[in-house]
Specification:
Elements: H1 4-10, H2 14-32, H3 43-60, H4 62-71, H5 79-88, H6 90-101, H7 110-130, H8 137-151
Length: 153
């Protein structure tokens, strides 16, 4: 219920609007990762917390997840914005690196581990949204255990 002309009071063009939306969504997504992570807990417990956080955030903010996915490689998003979005995921990449260094995770390039983990979550969330499958704690636990089995030593 917003007139198109009103948007252009705040943004000079659609590219600027999409870039701003992308940045806000990337910030929200990255902030959700480490909620309730306790450095005193063991690695698998913290990994579980991060995994569940990503899954729940992706499900509850599905439109944002899809916007990020669709826009990341779009010509509407400037390269500098993509670089900043990747920078926001550095703490997660570092978390994965620590897991590898401590022998919890397979010695696979971190980017492939991140893709495997996020890809699994994205596809589950898409199935729950598009195919109207039940998004539940029980489902998340089953998928988490499969994912953990795939990446852990």
């Amino acid at each position: 219920k917003l007139a198109t002309g009103t948007v252009y009071l705040y943004f000079t063009n659609k590219e600027e609007l999409i870039t701003k939306l992308f940045r806000v969504c990337a910030d929200n997504y990255a902030r959700a990762y480490f909620v309730d992570v306790d450095p005193k807990e063991d690695y698998k417990k913290n990994f579980h917390t991060v995994w569940i956080n990503i899954a729940k955030h992706s499900y509850h903010f599905f439109d944002q997840m899809i916007l990020l996915e669709q826009c990341f490689h779009s010509p509407f998003i400037p390269e500098e914005t993509r670089v900043l979005a990747k920078e926001k995921l550095k703490p997660w990449a570092n978390f994965i690196e620590r897991g590898k260094a401590k022998g919890f995770l397979k010695d696979v390039d971190t980017i492939w581990l991140m893709i495997f983990i996020r890809g699994t979550i994205r596809e589950v969330v898409k199935q729950c949204n598009y195919a109207h499958r039940k998004f539940s704690a029980a489902l998340l636990e089953k998928i988490f255990e499969m994912c953990w089995a795939g990446i852990s030593k």
